[in-house]
Amino acid sequence: MCGIFCSVTSKTDVQHPVVVEGRYQDGSCLFWETSDATFIENTFITKSRECSSQLSEIDKKKLSHVQELRELNERLNKLKNTIKVSSEAAESRRAIESRIQEITYDESHDDLSTTSGSKETNTTIEDFMSLIATRGPDYLSYSFFRDASASFQLVSSVLSLRQPFTQQPLELDELSLQFNGELYNEECLATNDTDYIKSLLGENMARLGRKDGILRTVISLYGEFAFTIIDKRDKLVYFGRDVIGRRSLLYSYDERQKSLCISSLPPSSDSDFQECKGNELMIYDYRNNALETRTYSQLFKNYDMEPYLGLVPTTDSCESDSILDQRIEELHAKLATSCDLRISTVHPLHPDSENYKVGVLFSGGLDCTVLAAMLCEQSSKLPKLELDLVTVGFENSRTNTKASSTPDRKLSKLSWFHLSKLFSKSNVEIRLVEIDVSYEQWLLHRKKVMSLMFPRNTEMDLSIAIAFYFASGCFIGRKSVLRDNSVSWNDFQAQEDQYLSVDDSYMSNSKVLFSGLGADELFAGYSRHEALFNDLMKPDTQEYDSEIKKRNQSLALSLIHDINIIYERNLGRDDRVVSSWGKELRYPYLDEKLISFVVSTIEPNLKLKISWETVNSKKKGVLFKAVATRKWILRQLAKRMGLAWVQNEPKRAIQFGVKSAKMEIGQNKVKGTDKL
Predict the structure, then answer these.
(1) Which residues contact 391 (CB under 8 A, 6 or more apart)?
(2) Under a CB-based contact definition with an 8 Å cutoff, are residues 159 and 35 in contact?
(3) Which terminus, N or C, of the chain has the lesser number of Cβ atoms within 10 Å?
(4) Phi, psi of 502 (to 5 degrees)
(5) What are the tens digits of pLDDT across the range 356-403?
């Protein structure tokens, strides 16, 4: 994984970082680098995290009055639930609301309209270096060069996950390449993928010319990535993300000022940076100040290439048990391959150990438990796998919920327990890592998270992003390993400490974290998918077959739409938040070949299964009602893998599972779609 910053401007008086002062080569180019991790940490990364070092005055006030706020909120709720409101009750409500407002009102918000945009204007190159360094704590470089058309500043950081180490930016035939990602092309599985790109660029440009060679190289890459390529000869800058958009990349283009800025991270939460789209590449002609886009689908046609990602859906129905068994076996094999690619390309990172250390963002639910089990199955190919199942819980001031009693905490412990027993004879050590987040910590870090997740800016985005932030961050948690694999779940619950090895001051050093994101989009896991089958007529009606086929077609198209926009809805936000800790997310469910298989081969009725039940209604009597089971085939796979305890586990959004939604008292009526 890497961090990318690239600035192109017509200005000649650019500011250089203080750390490289006095290192000019000839006035038109400059290069500085360091692989001193301690220097990078102390000089840049610590600076980037300084904003989380103290509470604001209003947050201190909230903390000191938290018990009073809870009592006021409870009184207010009782009054609001009163059917007949007397004048005395109305006066009490106004008094309570006034007191809550007095405690929680932040005067600084009054000045936001006058300060909006000022952060971006004042962002220095040192600020960007500090941001980019957080994504790659093993290496940091600064490059500057100038020609007759423009001045360039590049900052590159590297989290070294694949050997041999390769510095960035890479230089080749008047090209400068910055690459952030992981490739799974067969030719580079055993080596450094950035070196592979360099070789491929050379071959394709020699055969097709510079522009066609560069474009063909990019669409030949199989994996998750973002990149910039500066062609100094043709005066062009190419930049973008992979076809799905699994790595963050943002840009700000000022046509009037003739400037372009590209960055893995936004400078602030009020900048004009926007997400690069997942299915487009962009080309900036800096000599003529022109910006154009090319779609992946267009480029594949131009070069007569078969894309890795195919989104042509099947709308057939599967009614045969033998075909169902075949689908489950194929899904198991495809997902196993996706996991294998993503774990075998993590070279052991610790010189004192040959063990593979990775983590899973773990709620204990269906998606991540299947994923964890898949990784355990692949462990037979590794020397030893140390698997951290990281679960986070929030102390919610509004509901007075403890972190240890959140729904995800309870479910994650159950799933970890059964996984530990299921794989007790394998060469994997499964550790449950429990991270409790206090209300004070939430207050301390939320502004940092709001800045990282930008341009996403809703209440729901914050509640999801901050859960990932604490789950992936350098926070102390409780690590548990099951010592007695013969114990039953009931006996374990009764006296769990007797069967555990525990470390209460554990900090996970897994540099790669696996995420179950994508399962809902592939297998119909959201209520909006189920809603497509509302008011479905009875199966004994004449029109039923054509109607169910029509709705299955709508479901197939809805799932493709979800995949097409996942770069904007989830991926950029999650990547920025997690990678700010120098850790990398990997998404086995979002492998291009797996997606293509699920879309084109697995029938819609195996994703959202419709069954019919007789239901008694007081008003309408006995009804014959359609009942939908989301992610049905994934549940069947879980059962076949021996994960029966999660087979029927319902979908629960992370913000409700960890209780990170509506953390503040008085937020009862706040909606997830509300802007922050």
Answers:
(1) 362, 363, 364, 408, 409, 412, 413, 432, 433, 434, 435, 471, 658
(2) no
(3) C
(4) -125, 140
(5) 899 999 999 999 999 999 999 998 888 889 999 999 999 887 777 888
